[in-house]
Amino acid sequence: TIMAIVYSKIAIGLLIAGISTLVFGTVLVFVGPIIIDEQIVKNTQINPQNELSYNMWKDIPVPFFMSVYFFNVVNPKEILLGEKPLVEQRGPYVYSEKRSKDNITFHTNKTVSFCEYRQYFFEESMSAGNESDVVTIPNMLVLGASVMLEKLPLPARLLISSTFTMFKEGPFVTKSVGELMWGYDSKLVDFLTAFFPDMVPIKGKFGLFAEFNNSNTGLFTVFTGQDDIRKVHKIDSWNGLKNVNYWNSDQCNMINGTAGQMWPPFLTTESTLPFYSPDACRSMELVYENPGMVKGIPVFRFVAPKTLFANGSDYHPNEGFCPCRQSGLLNVSSCRHKSPVFISHPHFYNADPALLATVNGLSPNKEDHSLFIDIHPETGIPMNVSVKLQLNLLIKEHPTSHIPQHPTASHIPHHPTSHIPQHPTSHSPQHPTSHSIPQCC
């Protein structure tokens, strides 16, 4: 009887404990997600009172790497005689990128302004060569100036054309990677800046990335999310502007999304990732592709839609970015001092096949040349990013130029680059006869 009483008490105790566990479990099922969401909201706001997350936003601890590939022109002399260009890809030349925010100012409307500065450091151990490697690429100065000659009076065109010969500048240039990246002395630049300062807004050495190092991308003002977490990181203005004036439609001139580093939390498969890129002078938007995992962390992959660089004929909303050429090229001359510059995916991936048919040595594929972001949907934090773009230069023969060129218009891919931010847990980083010569990527 005593044993029965003891077992009875134990059973009652276990029953009470079981019921309590069930109740606690039931409460946790409903309350747990709310608590977690509250913590996510708290830690994704831009708030100095949250020291850890604020410092991570201010000085991004994630390592960024920029990989640059040059397209070495194998047959420059033959190209001048009308042959199809042949190129070979060189690289990558890898640079670590240090990013930090400065001039941080909080405003009463729950926004914060800042400038983000960039510094680059060559990483020889991660590169397939060093900065002393020599490559031959199209001469951006000469070919760009040749196109821009069209808008100048005849005397000015003749004067500038004669300087090409005087300074021994031709349609191609052979330099080291370091010189092409960070600058080299050019008598042609000195002449043009002295007599035509509006034509070539360059002072000192000329280099593809000379203006990038130790520079900032403009004054961003973004929402802190303190009053509405759905707005966190979204841009309120850039350089004091709500819209830019580079393009020919209100839609194309809109400054949308974030600055491209973080997005609001609680993303779904119906979400998109809009962001404004000062380098591309426009807003862009990535779309959901599929779920995945990065180091055991669930992510959503967002990719560039095929319409991103489509021309206005193939995709009407892009009409405002015209004048357009083949799909796959974005004309950014309106924000690049009228120089004939176009942006595309590397190797003309997802572009009009007519572009690819004009040059030998390109092999576009999704794995190597697509643009994507793997992002943790609950927090809006990117876990793996591969932003790859190619800069292209339009060239064509001008009757007053002393530079022999093939008589058709040409797009010269200039330098596709890969900006690869890596999470701390990661250990890896219309003219069918025209010539499109890749220069570097």
Task: Characterize the structure shown.
InterPro entries: CD36/SCARB1/SNMP1, CD36_fam. One of its GO terms (molecular function) is low-density lipoprotein particle binding. It is found in: Cell membrane; Membrane, Caveola. The chain is α+β, with helices and mostly antiparallel strands and about 450 residues long. It folds into 2 domains: about 45 residues; about 375 residues, no CATH class. It contains 9 helices and 16 strands. The strands form 2 sheets. Strands 1, 2, 3, 6, 7, 8, 9, 10, 11, 12, 13, 14, 15 and 16 form a 14-stranded antiparallel sheet that branches. The chain has a two-stranded antiparallel sheet with strand order 4-5. Strand 9 and strand 10 form a beta hairpin. The longest helix has about 45 residues. It is globular, with a radius of gyration of 27 Å.
